[in-house]
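Posting this for the archive.
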Amino acid sequence: MQNINKKPTVLHIVNSNIYSGLENVVINIIESLKEKYNFFYVCKDGPIVDVLKEKSINRIKIDKISKNELIRLENNYKPDLIVAHDYTASLMCGFFIRKTKIIFHLHNNSPWLKNVLHPYNYMFLLSCLRKNVKQILIVSDSIKKEYIFSKNINDKIINVSNPISCFNVTSKIDENKNYNVEYDICCVARLTKQKNPERFIKIIKEIKKENNNIKVIWVGNGELYDEIVNKANELNLSTNIKFVGFQKNPYAYMKKSKVFLLTSDWEGFGLVAFEALALGLPCVVNNVGGLPLIVDDSCGKLCNNDNEIIKEIEKLINNDDYYSSKHLNAIKKSKKLDNIDSYMNNIESTYNDIMAKK
């Protein structure tokens, strides 16, 4: 396929078919830089398709990321650059893309990065070492620190953080609408092992002992949805926790909540915590990954165990003065973190530098 626009053609290859943090970053990049590049979002069918249509983003359908599909993409679209997002897409592109320059963009720090015996470690290293893999972008230094072979590819790794924009969050809130607080606690995350929703509901069970009418909402879908809903029912939390599944605008639910709670076992960056701060929600989060770059004692709490989480949440929902201070500081902290302009300049510079290399 010839590039009739004379702009460089860039394929973003994403292994998921949902709309979550990673996908939001890719869409932000495409929307911000669409005047500079001829972008295509490559993914399977799924909820993400409606979002891409709504935003008029060009999409290439694949059934799965495979050798044949990648060869077809390279031959038919003749891209100037391929950006592979996260580990499966990166590993596969590294092995099967032969002519096109590749950037790996890693949004997460999966547990196997630390496991010297895990076969993915060696396969991923071989993929990273391929000559046409020119750059490895990471969203926090925790990824580099945890990957046991990072020293072997250190010259390719750049920490680009994540695109952080207060406006992208607050603009989704209708200023003419009254968002009355309905929930004491909210979480916006996929119901997956990474987010540890079982730990989340057990914590709510403990909080309920002192706050019987605690109101909680979880926004997000995932493979553990049925299991977690059933578990909440078993713990007699059906009247306390509301599961609303995937929502195109989760910010409306955040705006109706007082506190944001995230019990992830690992996070590459934790962009959703920033989004909560931008809406004034103090964040109580597990002390992992990139979350220490976002949350501190002024606007929430980095916690190392369940007791710390429970103690902090109870203080936030029961002490108005304490809550008010952290609420105001959450908004202040989000404004300090806002980096959208510098981030996009950095991404554009990185793309151009890679395409200019021989």
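Residues 320-337 form the longest helix (18 residues). The two ends are 22 Å apart (CA to CA).
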